[in-house]
Design brief:
CATH class of the largest domain: Alpha Beta
Strand order of the largest sheet: 1-2-6-5
Largest sheet: 4 strands, antiparallel
Order of helices and strands: HHHEEHEEEEEHH
Helix content: 40-55%
Number of helices: 6
CATH superfamily of the largest domain: General secretion pathway protein M, EpsM
Number of strands: 7
CATH topology of the largest domain: Gyrase A, domain 2
Number of domains: 2
Length: 236
């Protein structure tokens, strides 16, 4: 059996332990400093060299392409047209959908009233309707229907007058028929492309949309615009 003796005093052992710790600390510190210095050099190269080169290259490209664009003939007109084309979608949304009038008229026109002429002024928000009817009473019913018709929208259930300042400006009659001219204003929301409008028509008035016969809507625009014709004597 071998026997080992530790001939180094405790002070020597402690000194050796401290030296190893010192060398470890120095090695870690040196490695940390090396990493920091490397990162600093990389950052410096990126900011002071690469970034400047990128900015210079971008500036040169801007100058190059700007000069190429300036060489195009009539570039100002082309850009103006492009801007106008870009504004078309918004203008389309703001335009008046006057075709909706052909959806509204059957809802407010009594069955015995026909329309011969229709003038719509979207700038002044006015409407002129001329035509014929079987009697003056039917014409008055048409006028009252326009006066008391209101509308709502999908976003607002509040009832607002659809037509304003409704005036029977001209009426004529004979023993066979009557003719009329009605002037009225209208709410611009009726033809707003951004709104879904629903008319609220007085129920006591019998209109073409309520009767809904095959001939009721198709004959809507068969009215005359002048004085009702007098039937020649001797004809049936």
């Amino acid at each position: 059996m071998a026997v080992q003796f530790n001939l180094l005093p405790d002070v020597k052992l402690e000194f050796d332990r401290q030296q190893r710790t010192k060398r470890l600390v120095v090695a870690v510190s040196s490695l940390t400093v090396g990493v920091v210095v490397t990162l600093f050099i990389i950052s410096f190269v990126i900011v002071d060299v690469l970034q400047k080169q990128l900015l210079t290259s971008a500036s040169n490209d801007i100058t190059k392409y700007s000069n190429n664009i300036k060489k195009i003939d009539n570039i100002e007109k082309i850009l103006t047209i492009q801007n106008q084309l870009n504004s078309l979608p918004s203008l389309h949304q703001k335009k008046h959908l006057t075709s909706l009038l052909f959806d509204y008229l059957p809802q407010v026109t009594p069955t015995n009233v026909n329309i011969g002429k229709l003038d719509l002024d979207t700038g002044a928000s006015t409407l002129t309707i001329s035509g014929t009817a079987d009697t003056v009473e039917s014409i008055n019913k048409f006028v009252d229907t326009l006066k008391f018709t209101s509308f709502t929208t999908a976003d607002d259930s509040t009832k607002n007058p659809a037509f304003i300042n409704v005036v029977l400006s001209k009426v004529d009659r004979n023993d066979k028929a009557a003719s009329y001219t009605i002037d009225a204003g209208f709410d611009t929301s009726l033809f707003d492309a951004t709104k879904k409008v629903s008319l609220v028509v007085p129920k006591e008035t019998t209109t073409r949309s309520i009767i809904n016969t095959p001939d009721s809507t198709s004959n809507l625009f068969n009215g005359q615009t002048g004085k009702p014709a007098t039937q020649p004597q001797g004809t049936q």
